[in-house]
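Write out this protein's structure.
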Amino acid sequence: MTRAQRANHPTGDRNHRPGPDTATRTDPPAQRRPHAAPGRTGEPPLPGAPGPRRRHRRAPGHDRRRRREARRVRRRALPRWRRAVPTWRMLLGTLAGGVLLACATFGALYAAVPVPDPNAHALAQSNVYYYADGTTEIARTGAVNREDVPLSEIPLDTRNAVVSAEDRTFYRNQGVDLKGMVRAAWQNVSHLGAPGRAFQGGSTITQQYVKNYYLTQDQTLTRKARELFISLKVDRRSTKDTILAGYLNTSYFGRNAYGIQTAARAYFGTDAAHLTLAQGAYLATLLQAPSAYDVKTASPANREKAVARWNYVLDGMVTLGFLDPGTRAGLTFPDTLEPQAAQGLEGQSGYLVDIADDYLTQTGVLDTATLKAGGWRITTTFDKPRQDAFVDAVKHELTAELDPAARPRTDTDVRVAGASVEPATGRIVAAYGGPDYAVQPYNDALRQDNQVGSTFKPVDLAAALEGDRTTQDGHPITTQTLYDGTSGRTVVGGPSPYSPPNEDNENHGPITLRRAMMRSVNSVYAQLGIDAGLDNVRRTAIRLGLPDSLQGMNPDHSSMTLGTATPSALDLAAVYAALANHGQAIRPWAVSALSRPGTREAPPLPGHEPTVAVTRASADAVTDVLRDTVGPDGTGSTAQALGRPAAGKTGTTDDNRSAWFAGYTPELASVVGLFREDVKTHAKESLAGTAGYERINGGTFPARIWTAYMGSALNGTPVGQFDLQPGPGNTEPPTPVSQAPKAPKPAKPKPKPKPKPKAKTTAPAIKRPVAPRPPVATRPAAAAPPAPVRPPAPRPTPGRP
C-alpha cells in the first residue's frame, strides 16, 4: 500500500508500523531493502524510527480448544449411526490403554503367583471301586508306581523322541508357546464335532511338568492361569535338562507306570538306560493316550493309531535333526511285553475296574491321567450276586468239562466273553472278562476282534422291517415273507458276489423269515440284508448300539449281513437290550456315583436318556421271532430250561472260530461268547474238538452258560411277560407254513475221545433252582411238524449255528 493509498484509506496510518526496512514506491530505489526480521541484519534501528511490528499473541491452548470444538460440531452434525462408530483417535486410545492395562495386569500376576512346593503326588490316595450297593468294595487301585532316575540314565534318543512327540519348540520357547496355544485353539474350534478328532492341548513340556509336579490335574481356568505363570518362572530358574528330567519322571505311560523307569520295565522288561531308539519312540507315543495306544490291549483301530503316532514321532526326529533318514528307514515297530496285573485286581475285580475306567474315560468324565492320579470313590452298577452267578455258570457249564491234560490241543486257551445289561435302564449288572485278572489281564468282555456270526441276523430283520422295504420281486417284507432257502444261493443285487452255504449245506426251499431265523438259514438272511439295503443295515446296527468304528461293518461287502462285524460282548448286549426295550436304545453304563474327598464338586456323570433305534412295531416283531428261536424247533432250544419268557439267537462263525448266544427276558439282556486263541500270537483257533465235541455251536456251551446265569440272576424275582405289538403281517398265521423245513440230522458224536456222560434231558440242568411254572417262552404253531429227535444235551447239533 502506497503512502497515498494509506492517506486516503479510512483507517489512515493507524495500522502502519514502518520499520527500518520499510520502503514505498515513492522512496528512492537505494532506500528499498529486502524484507528482514528485525535484528537479523546486524544494523541497529535508526534513531526515532518505529520499532518492529508485533503480532497479537493468543493464550496457550486457545487454538487446540478451537479445533476440538470444531470437531465436536462436525461430529454432532453427522447421522446417529455414524456417530456410534468410534473414530481412529478413540480406537487408538482404547488400544493403547488396553495394552498398558494388560501389561500392568500381567506384571502384577507374574509377581503375585509364586512357584509352590511340589505336590504330594507320592502320597496320592488309591481309587476305591464299589459294587452297586455302594458299600461292598470291588478293588483299590491308584497307588503311584514310580521310580525316579537322573537324566543321564535316560538315553538321548529317548529324550529327543519325547521332545518330538510333545513339544518340538522345547529348546527354543520360554516355558510357554503362545503360537502353539493359538494354533491348538484354532484346530479345536475348526474341527469341533468332527468324528474321531482328538482335542489338542497346546501345552509345552514345561507346562505339563508344572501341572504334574506343582499343581493338580483339575481342568479349571484358575489352574491353567497359574500353570502359565509358574511355567515362565520355572523356565527362567531351571535348566531345560532339569525340566525334561522332571517331566519324564512324573508322566503317566499306562499300565499303572508313572515315570520313564517303571514304563520301561512295564513294556519292555528293562531299565530306562537300556531302551532302544524304537522302544523310546514308542514310550513317547504313549504320552498322548496311554491306555488307547497300548498295542497289546488296544482295539484294531487304536493299534493302527498307535503305529501312526510312532511313525510321527520318528519323522519329527528327522525334521528336528535328531535322527538321520537312513537310520529312520531301518527302524521297525517294537514288540512289547504282555501286561501284568496290578496288585489288588485279582479274580474278577480287574475286569470290572477296566469296564468302569473305560466308561469314565470314553464318556469324557475323566481323562486317564486324572483318573490314575487317585483319590476317587467310584460306585459301579455291578450287582455282586449276579456277578458271582456269571462266574459260577462259566465254571460249572464249561470249565468243569475241559481237560487240558487229556486234550492239550483243544481244551487249552478256551476263553469266554460275557455281559449282562438291564434293558429298561442300560445298567451293566454283570460281566465276564476272564477267569482271573492276575493270570489273564485281558478283558474279553471289551475286546472287539471276534466276529459274531448269526447273532447279527436280528439286526438284518429289524432293518428290513423299518419303512417300506420289499423283496427283489416287489413283495413287502414281513416276518412271514417267503424266501428261497437253497444252500449256496448267490445273492441278487449285492455290491459283491456272495453265495453263503447253509449249515451242513442243507437246502430249506421256500421258507418264511420267521422259520429261517429259527433254523438260522444263511442263504435267506444274506438276501434279506441286500433287500433291506446294506447302508440301512449298518445304520440300524449303529442306532441299536454297535460302534461305528467296528471292523466288518463295510456295506461294500455283501457278507456283512451274516455277522462279519466284531463287537464286544458288551456292545452286542446293548443291541439285544434295545430290542427288549421295544426299540429304545440306552448306552450301557457302569458308574452310578463319583466323588473325590477334598474337592468341592466332582465332574457330572452323563445322563441315560433313551433314543429311538427302531420303531416299537419292528423291535417287537423281531422279539416275537426270537421267542420261536428258543422254542423246541429253534437253534436256541437249550434256553427253554430257563422256565421264563425268553428270546434269543445263536451264532457260529466260519471254521468254528467263535460261538455265541445272545438273548433276553423282559428284565435282563445277556450275551455269552466262546472262542480260542493262541496265547502268544493271539491268533484265533477253531473250537472244534473242545471238551471232546466235534463242533461247538452257539446252542451248546454259550447257551448253557447263558441259561445257567440267567436262572440264578433272576431267581426269586417276579416273572415278566413280553408286551409285544409287532404290527400287522408280523405274527405267525394260524395255518401251517406251506413249505416246512427238513428235520435236522442228529449229531454224530466223535468216537475219540468220548465226552463225559450226561443225563438224557432236552436241556442242560441249571445249577441254581428256578421256581417251576408252565412254559410260556414259546407258543406252538398250528399243525407244525413234529419235533425232531434230539441227542442228549449238551451235544452240539449240526445245522444250528
